[in-house]
Amino acid sequence: MTAPTVGAAPAETVDDLVARRVAGQSLEAPFYTSPEVYQRDLDVIFARNWIFVAAAAEVPEPGDYVTIDVGAYSVIVVRDDDEEVRAFHNVCRHRGSRLLQERQGAVGNIVCPYHRWTYGVDGKLMFAESQPPTFDKSCFSLRSVHVRNLSGLVFVCLAQEAPDDFDAVAEVVAPHLAPYELDRAKVAVSYDLQEAGNWKLVMENNRECYHCDGHPELTTAYFPLFAYEPEDITPRLKPLYDRYVKAAGALAEVRAAHGLPLTDHRELDTRVVGYQLSHLPLDGEGKSFAPDGAAVCTKLLGSVQDAAFGDLSLHMQPNSWFHLLSDHAVVFSVLPTSTGTSVLRTTWLVHPDAVEGVDYTLDALTAVWRATNDQDRALVAGTQAGCANPGYLPGPYSMVEDDVEAFVNWYVTRLREASA
User: Needs which cofactor (predicted)?
Assistant: First the structure.
């Protein structure tokens, strides 16, 4: 038997990693490769915070549902008979069977496949065979999950007590979302992209445009300048920046004419429900994500009246971002699936009366973000492989990666608070 080494250093903990995190630098490798960190992420980030799970348009009618898996959790998001969006744990109150197996569908009632316990879409137990006269159905409703429908964007929180600043953020964000009427939109298409990278790498990649030269399809319409200050503009970027300034001025006039709030907001790491909202101009025609900013759908969303309406960009910590344009919206969510893998779900929304093949084609609607997502998937996979390399050391963020630093700071702060 080998004797333990005298004076051996104790095993490093997640709290040790959090305590020595250096501001302004990328995270150490275990944050992306350690099973212990991954489990902490599930327990602290995804089980205690508000996470984006679906567009309300995915459950347009009573009985329509989607299911979401987060670690060991499975959640049902369903529209009830009063047309309210509800969320429940996907667990039968009898002996724990999973109730709904499919990613999406429609039900009259929720029926357990094991012993046929039957629940209404409001979660109340309606039927349970062979129970004694003393059995009280009202004691065995489905367990509710905190849910908020923010102007057509559905968030859930798995904790018993949800962070209480969501409503304050919603009060700021909702007036900006109002013209798009996402609650009335319809899903044109949705797809899942399997990422060979830790969920944080997917989010960090999204939070900067330092790499946007690698997105030629996107940057024909999208100005890759949202994190730049005038002093950051290099001679190479000057012509692009001049177009950006001109387009931003024109967009401000359109926003004012619509009576919209003109102030953008950035509270990415200064509150628990971190967010950023910016109404950005588009290049070229300024209408949508098509070459040179052209439109991709002939029907405008909601009450939007001007096709050159730019891009309302919303980031929500920890797992989502959104682009709302005059003619469609794209919503993104990231969920962890293992230490080194995650899934990116992308959903395109259009006007409820828009007809595929008449008002839009799926190829034109989705081309830019399908290409961009695939390009980012390769970048994330390469970064995951690099972080797992023993030669990796944290590097400094550039002057235009403030939002990456804000994401990482928000994340580390949540872990630190949970250990306090």
Answer: Fe cation
